[in-house]
Amino acid sequence: MKCPGDVVESHWQGTAFTFHCKWSERDAMDNFYTIVARLIKIMARDPCRRFTLGATIEDSRMKLWIYNRSMIIASEAFDLESDIKLFIRVIVSLLFAEDSDLGWDRTIKAGYDGNIRTYDIEVCGIQYKTKSSNIITDVDEEDIYSSGTRMFKVFRADDIDQKEPLIIKDYWATYFLESEFTPRRNLLEAVSDTTDQKSFKEYITTPIAWERVKDRGQEDHTKDLILHGEEPDGTYIIDLPGYARYGYSGRHKYNIAAESVVGKLLNIGKWEKGYLHRWHYRIVLKKSVIPFDKLINLKDMLLVIEHSIEALLIMHKAGWIHQNLNPENLYLCIDPATGSKGGVIGGFELTKHIGTEEGDNEPLGDPKFMALEIANKAYTYKFTKQPGLTVNSSEHLLDLNKERLTTNAETKFWANYLHDLESIWWIIAWTSLNFEKIEDISAVPQYERVEDKVRDEIIDEIFPDDLHSRERSKFFHSESSFNTQMGMVPRPLLALECIMEKLRKILNDAYLEEEYSLEKNDQPIELLHERVPHEKILEILKLFPDEDVGVVSIDDNPERFARMEQRLQSLKSGSDERPQKRTRIVQDSEEKQEKVVSKPVITVRITRSKAAEMNKGRITRSMTKASAKRKISYKG
């Protein structure tokens, strides 16, 4: 198919099978970086892809690769000279394979209207039309093993005048989760008050159709369909000529820490072990929405936060919790007829009734916005009371000598409503650190360039890969730590900083009140108070009704982008600057690729938190046999 659009984009959208070849086996690491980067980039750039295929060749040895939303798999290498029949079989299979066997999705048909790429998407037998400019949430290349959520603004094929905009959410849910349609229905049934139910419907997304995507009559699944029912059956250690040997053998624990040629670190949190197979879902939403992280006005952001708290209050009173609140599941809805705005919540796949066992064995949700207690699987303030001990505040309790406080081993941990509210707090914190006023986009003076580096370091400490980060915990629990960190943020959004400070105290005191007085060890914490934290939070938010300020993500700041490009080049030239954990620059894998030469050590720059992970690099063998690292995410 001729692709009249951007040449680079059409390259990624039209690649059926990617090769990368080197003359020597000593170039294995370079091949590894490049093939992984290409497989990931092709899937991230093309909404029509379910999985991607490729091959690497070093000298005469060839290895096949496949990447889907659950894993990256590599075959054992075979010799092209001694096993030429196998090579011919691979080539013939590729030549005669159907599109779906090469990774394309038959239910999405791509075309072009001039230079604009268009898509016809089928859901439950109904055709919807959209185009590339109407993709409102796209796949992040850093989320290697995730739901791969995309959201499209669409119109029914028969809506010629495009009067009723809808949303299609396309995603890969982990095998033990249902579509958000079912939990949402059960949640609405649990809200018994008629007034609350009416209000609640205004605060949540409205699905009108959903299905598991099918290919040739079979439901799309990362194992049952894409891998034909097979899965990795073991691991082997990567042994690179000329480099230190790293890795270990084992099953269901994939932990390769490697830097791809596009400057992304492929890493995995310590609690994320094994791999999760996924079902392919598609859901149609009635309300046309804008994701929270795409908003460009602080007033709109605060409105979404306020209405999200209103929705959570109704949900929590009914005894339910959300468990997956993040910027991609909060939206601004604009009525096309009146122009009125409102905040809505989506992403109900993990929603459940408080006290049910499902999901309490493993941390669920987006790690960046996960409550500290969920990550630690333990209450912060649930201690055995000591005679003569008086606790005045949450921070006072944490500052006490630990020898006087002993955790009650009999206490069973349950997820509760405070964890949802804490997730909202982390969303506000993330916004405060990752957005700045539009008026500050203008060229930043030389002396402030160092401050941008400070901002990055704060982000790395507060939103780390390690969920058990001490700095993250101190930022939430300690007033002095919070003030110190926020005091170093350049060009801060002062309204958000003030809101964070007040909400942090409200939440910590609420945790203390609920947990320190918790007498029963086998019962979850439920919302039973007359003066609930939600109302206190809403009072704080209403103190800032006029924050009509344009904001922009620091990722989208062109001046900062240019400075980051310069800094990346200095890192490559051997600068001693602290390497960044989060590279925000999308690089072209061809132009930015570093040729790996024979040296006694691997020249990959990694952060301190990644150094330990580097000793756990593995690939697994499977059907065409072997998986590389994965990064789990339950988002979307």
From TrEMBL:
Residues 574-594 have a biased composition (Basic and acidic residues). Residues 10-431 form the Fungal-type protein kinase domain. InterPro entries: Kinase-like_dom_sf (IPR011009), Pkinase_fungal (IPR040976). Residues 568-594 are annotated as: Disordered. This is Fungal-type protein kinase domain-containing protein. It comes from Pyrrhoderma noxium.
